[in-house]
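Page 37, continued from 36.
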């Protein structure tokens, strides 16, 4: 199953704001993009806006099937 498509769009930020986002992202081992998503979700949650979380694609190898000879 393919990964869910994310909406791409240009975002213009003050350079100092983006630097702060990058610092915050680095402390949590995230990309700046992932940090912005987290911050937006937190801000919307504080305002009472419910945002559904998309299913994440499964990572790693699929489980072995019975009778495959590799059990």
């Amino acid at each position: 199953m393919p990964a869910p498509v994310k909406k791409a769009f240009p975002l213009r930020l003050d350079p100092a704001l983006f630097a702060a986002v990058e610092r915050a992202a680095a402390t949590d081992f995230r990309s700046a993009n992932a940090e912005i998503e987290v911050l937006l979700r937190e801000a919307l949650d504080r305002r009472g806006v419910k945002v559904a979380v998309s299913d994440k694609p499964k990572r790693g190898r699929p489980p072995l099937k019975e009778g495959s000879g590799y059990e």
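Helices lie at 15-27, 32-46. Flag for discussion at group meeting. The two ends are 25 Å apart (CA to CA).
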